[in-house]
Amino acid sequence: MLKILLTGSEGQVGQTLYKKLYNKANLLAVNRKELDITNKSKVENIIFTFKPDVIINAAAYTAVDNAENNIEIAKAVNMQGPKNLAQAAQKIDAILLHISTDYVFDGKSSLPYTEEMETNPISVYGSTKLEGEVAVLQENSRSIILRTSWVFSEFGNNFVKVMLKLGQEREQLNIVSDQIGAPTYAGDIADTLIKIAFLSEKNKKIPFGIYHFSGYPYTNWFEFAKIIFQNAKEQNILERIPKILPISSGEYPTVALRPLNSCLKLDKIKENFDIAPSDWKSALLDMKRYIESK
Questions:
Q1: Closest Cα partner for 175 from 225, 218, 217?
Q2: How confident is the model at residue 99 (pLDDT cuts 50, 70, 90)?
């Protein structure tokens, strides 16, 4: 049975991975309290003791605005942590699957971003995630970086759950409409990582490197919110739909800058692994789960 070490087991993707993997693999899932990935000796101890075939790193500092004022913490978790995992994994010849982000790009491209396009993060979060990518690829020759975007799930804090909460509380919402990208369901990210992980068990040659995986079709936050509310109303989750107004990013200032274009080109992962984009609209067909989960 494939031995998998899962870090960040209490995040959106981590919780989903745990649900899908606990009876399919010899799984060791650890949260932040159980393994601080910034502590090199603890990382080495758990990896050298458990000896996983595959490590899936779902741990990250994802508070985009807070990262602007907590640079050292963001860098420790998003760069040093993955570096520690990559170095230890290399020593036991383990595969490392690492999750990254669309925020490594500046969003100025008029086209969807390919894996080979120039990175230029415009936030501390994006910069530290890019540093993590570089460290992983430098330290482990058997690693895959999976860049994704606009993650939502039943777990944690995300746009879908926030919209449902605000929809119950407010009569009107202003939603940014000039940032385009792709919502991505965490369950589909988990399925993608699991498919890649199990290819190694079948002794298939895995083409390592950077891959983009996200939802499709592309949209903006305003249109995303409209679909969330329409589905919630049709499924009797909300009695009424709040009035939503489109606004520009300039009208909704945030501490950290966001890319205006977060669209990721998805051809490479389809060609190499036969993995289709996340069908985010289908993931919104059962809205009740986003209300009932914590």
A1: 225
A2: very high
Find the farthest-apart pair of alpha carbons in the chain and give their distance in angstroms, rounded.
Answer: 57
Catalytic residue among 61, 103, 113, 125: 125
d(CA 113, CA 223) in angstroms, rounded, equals: 21
Report domain extents, the chain: 3-157+184-217+263-280
Which pLDDT does position 294 carry in this prediction?
56
125 counts as catalytic: yes
Strand partners, 143: 96
- 3-157+184-217+263-280 homologous superfamily: NAD(P)-binding Rossmann-like Domain (3.40.50.720)
pTM to 2 decimal places: 0.97
Helix axes 124-139, 81-91, angle to 10 degrees: 10
Q: Per-residue pLDDT tens for 163-217?
A: 999 999 999 999 999 999 999 999 999 999 999 999 987 767 899 999 999 999 9
Q: How far is CA 250 from CA 84, 96, 291, in A?
A: 38, 39, 31
